[in-house]
Amino acid sequence: ALMLAYSPGQICESRLKPANANLELPVRAAFVILVRNSELHELRATVRQLEDQFNSRHHYPYVFLNDEPFTDEFKQAMEWATSGDCHFGLIPYEHWSMPPWVDRVRAKWAMAMMGSQVPYGDSESYRKMYESGFFFQHPLLADLDYYWRVEPGVEFSCYIPYDPFKFMADNNKMYGFTISLREFPVTVRTLWKTTSAFRAAYPEYTVPNNTLQWLTTPNGGYNMCHFWSNFEIASLDFFRSPQYTAYFDFLDRAGGFFLERWGDAPVHSLAVAMFLNKSQVHYFDIGYYHSPFQNCPTDPQFNAEHCFCNPNRSMIFNDDSCTNSWLDL
Ligand code: GDP
Ligand code: MN
């Protein structure tokens, strides 16, 4: 049964893959991965870990998204590395370009000024804001209720003994994170102000028992805390909601994705804080590493039996983590 039926030039099924067409998944969910062809090997390492720690027992599908067509080499490698169905999507140009109302000269100037101050300060591609406003609109996600964001190069450093998607569905969770930290202030100078303007324009969208206090300084500003969105397990209904889409459109019109460098992490986090209550958000204590930070479960027995990470290095012990203040809310 483990025979490889490979003929050159043809995309073929992985040796790990069961007859997925007949698979009954408990939740309509998938891994969603924005990735370049050139990141094939970093992603292969990541996906093999994800399979070993979790998905080889569940066979959730994968959606790979790219602003350029995936190569046959990339598709073949992913088919072989995964135990779930693979779907390869192209991002439409309108979702990957500077909107016409942004002043290109000012944007270029802002990028030059930010240049060497912060990571990606002078990067236009970093500002495409695909993860802020567009990924959930891709047709390949239309039939899904939940997604798990994965990036090339990340590591899953512990066995995952339960199904996080099913956990989300069974417990009415809308958003799950594993690492939180603080943003570089220069990238979000007017994000808080713009968000306050949004709240004033749409007062009905901020829920009464919101968690904005988690993000607020004693004098009412933004404390730079955010969920690190390179790991995210979330409900797609959250992103597709009128609240979230109105918020993204408001921010997009304000131009700060390009004139500053608003990242999808603070944007998602502010939306979570406004639109959800605490019980709808879950801290997943999953073994996870994205350079330079990691979450490493600290329970001695669990760590010893199931992990290959050092619990003393877990972000939870870093002063820049906002997870303890989240849990204390
Ligand atoms: P960082 O985590 O903030 O340092 O940024 P990354 O370099 O990890 O980029 C975030 C995600 O977007 C990763 O999944 C990348 O593979 C993906 N990504 C970034 N730029 C591009 C691009 O130009 N094209 C494609 N297809 N993916 C990209
Ligand atoms: Mn990354």
What can be said about this structure in brief?
The protein is of the alpha/beta class. It is built from 12 helices and 11 strands. It has helices at residues 40-53, 72-81, 104-114, 130-133, 164-170, 191-201, 236-240, 242-254, 256-259, 264-275, 300-306, 323-328, and strands spanning 29-34, 62-66, 86-90, 146-149, 175-177, 180-182, 225-227, 232-235, 281-283, 288-290, 293-295.
Let me know the CATH homologous superfamily.
Answer: Spore Coat Polysaccharide Biosynthesis Protein SpsA, Chain A
Bound molecules: guanosine-5'-diphosphate, manganese (II) ion
Shape: globular
Overall radius of gyration? 20 Å
Total strand segments = 11
Oligomeric state? single chain
Organism: Coemansia asiatica
Family: Belongs to the glycosyltransferase 15 family.
Active site: 232
Pfam families: Glyco_transf_15
Please characterize this protein's 3D structure:
With 329 residues, this protein is of the alpha/beta class. The protein has one domain: Spore Coat Polysaccharide Biosynthesis Protein SpsA, Chain A. It is built from twelve helices and eleven strands. It has helices spanning 40-53, 72-81, 104-114, 130-133, 164-170, 191-201, 236-240, 242-254, 256-259, 264-275, 300-306, 323-328, and strands at 29-34, 62-66, 86-90, 146-149, 175-177, 180-182, 225-227, 232-235, 281-283, 288-290, 293-295. The chain has a seven-stranded mixed β-sheet. α2 (72-81) links the parallel β2 (62-66) and β3 (86-90). It is globular and about 50 Å long. It binds guanosine-5'-diphosphate and manganese (II) ion. The site of guanosine-5'-diphosphate has 10 residues, from loops.
